Amino acid sequence: MCGIVGIVHGEPGRKVDEHLLRLMTDVMQYRGPDDSGIWLGDGLGLGHRRLSIIDLAGGHQPMTTGDSGLWITFNGEIYNYLELRALLEADGYTCQTNSDTEVLLNMYRRGGQACLEQLNGMFAFALWDSEKRRLFAARDRLGIKPFYYACVDGMLLFASEIKALLLHPAIQAEVHFDALQDYIDLQYCLGDKTLFKGIHRLLPGHCLTWQDSGLSVEKYWDLDFNSAEQTGSQEALADLLRDAVRLRLRSDVPVGTFLSGGLDSSAIACLAAPQLDTPLSVFTGGFSAAERYDESRYARIVADSLGARYHQVFPTAEDLAGSFDEMVYYLDEPVAGAAVFPQYFLSKLASQHVKVVLGGQGGDELFCGYTRYLIGYVESCMQKAIYGSAPLVGEESLSSLQDSLTYLRGFEPTMQKLFASDLFSAPGTRYYRLLQRSQDMEGILANSGWRDGSYSTAEAFCAEFDGVESDQLIDRMLYMDIKNHLQSLLHLEDRTSMAASLESRLPLLDYRLVEYALAQPASSRFARGRLKHLLKEAVRGIVPDEIIDRKDKMGFPVPIFEWFGGELKEYVEDILLGERTKGRGFFDMEVVEQSVRGEKPFGRTVWGLLSLELWFRQFFDAR
User: Cβ of 508: how many Cβ atoms within 10 Å?
Assistant: First the structure.
């Protein structure tokens, strides 16, 4: 994993400022502390920071091949690079290094843009064709690796992180108010927006071309719910999972796994351990505030069953107060919930022992692991029971869900809030309501004049939901989560690991697994509300039954309610109720004070406000 940067002028002959290019590259030094490089061409400059994982001596970037005139700066890993290298050699191509970067470069020489179809990996890269004066860039199918860009003053600027772009004098830090509305409503941005006006994300499964000052963006891959449905087998899914892990164990440096004690990370650890020649290192986090915040007992069950080297970290309230500012700096945008905090410390722990870590991100989205999917079906099936029909629920009914309803214990507040208004309205509207975070933040920015009324997060969300090519409710919910909510989690995964100079790999987001899972009938994936049914049956006998049969997994809960009302109360009030925040004139301070004093258990309002205010201080006040 690495950091990439580029400056591309529209007119030939215009020189790139070498000092500026180095500044933009080196601001991401933590993404690649092992090596750095820049290359200056005709009206173009490419920058690279390298975290050396494959071919430690031979993978220097930016890289070219012979006299091809092609130069590349690449962040990520191509896991099937050995198979692709054999393919290239059979076609007469020679590789001078053992790096996956050179394989990627030659795959583009061989097939152009079509090479993307053969890549199994996480990647964001930019490739310059000197002869055609054309830049081609692409991002992996699921959006694991970041790519940001801006078109300004006849230039294309791109980087792995926004902070690098902000160093260019042509970029002014301005709030994108439509994106801010998304953040207030959902705590992430829809589409290609970022919270910085004029700076865009290249979307997952998309590529872009820049030539003659013209930019075109194209989708090359998407989730497909309409491929020929196949009834898979537990063995076939287990084999795919095992192979996805096998490819992600390819490394010239030590590899470990995150282990939360949940099904996803446990499955990864249990599939990885038998494929290693030495004991697996696993890394667990938790909190001592209360038993419900500590799931390390489950992680130990797995670790003990594997004979793994077990490491754990229990961050404290003092750690949170001391690290909040730097976490916001590494994130660039306040887009994630409180899980960023333990993940940040877990990554720092792991980086002391290994350089690559495998994680279980993506399992909830791919294998229907969120309880909200069941809640969505409960409402629609009530509508069907009362009126005889309901959109998108197919053959499901209240009776078919009966055995799964125990999963809803503890989610009464969510259901009360959802069912309080607009019951049985359009499915997209209802799912938006399930995800919406802004009810508790209503009015916080109301007097700041930031909403002009021309954009609606709800309308944008529902338009995307209604455009999904499937008549199954579970498919539309999964699509929205993989394309949006998962992106905020991958943002967190990338930034927390990279802040510690650690490479994070995610086997459950192997595109072959995604395509296989989505090719199963919707009824098999949803399985009458039995969460992660396909995954559980595939890894039964591989993962301990105590993990598979759990019904109390909470994600990565953080005791912020107890801390913000207790030992961190003064810290919270000093920031949110202090003169600096008041003087900003952006918040309705009366509503902010009500939120600070009246936060409820599992509420996210105070966390969201802290993140937003510290983001303003970090990226606007400092400039």
Answer: 26
* Four-residue CA torsion sign, 457, 122, 265, 472: positive
Catalytic positions, please? 2
Which residues on adjacent β-strands are paired with residue 588? none
pTM, two decimals, is 0.96
CA-CA distance, 623 to 620, in Å (whole number)? 5
For residue 119, what is the DSSP state?
-
The residues, any chain, with a CB within 8 Å of residue 435's CB and separated by 6 or more, are 186, 372, 485
Q: What amino acid is encoded at 192 in this protein?
A: D
Annotate 95-110 with b (16+ C-beta within 10 A) or e (fewer). Answer: bebbbbbbbbbbbbbb
Distance, CA of 496 to CA of 506 (rounded, Å)? 14
* Burial grade of 399 (CB within 10 A; 0-12, 13-18, 19 or more): exposed
Beta-strand (E) ranges in 263-399? 281-285, 309-313, 356-358
Helices (H) and strands (E) in the chain, counts: 27, 17
Q: What is the DSSP string of 135-189?
A: EEEEE-TT--S--EEEEETTEEEEESSHHHHHTSTT----B-HHHHHHHHHHSS-
- Torsion-angle region of residue 449: left (phi > 0), alpha (psi -120 to 50) or beta? left
State both tokens at 245: 């892990």
With beta carbons less than 8 A apart as the criterion, state whether 342 and 285 touch. Answer: yes
CA–CA–CA angle 511, 536, 514 (5° rounding): 10
- Rounded average pLDDT per 10-residue block, the chain, 623 residues: 93 92 98 96 96 92 90 98 97 93 96 97 97 96 98 96 97 93 91 97 98 94 82 90 98 96 96 97 89 88 98 96 96 86 96 98 95 97 96 94 93 92 95 84 67 86 97 97 96 97 98 95 93 96 95 76 92 94 88 85 84 94 75
> Alpha-carbon distance 321 to 306, whole Å?
36
**Using N-to-C axis directions, what is the helix angle for 457-466 and 473-480, rounded to 10°?**
130
DSSP string, 537-551: HHHBTTB-HHHHT--
- Beta strands 148-152 and 155-159 are antiparallel
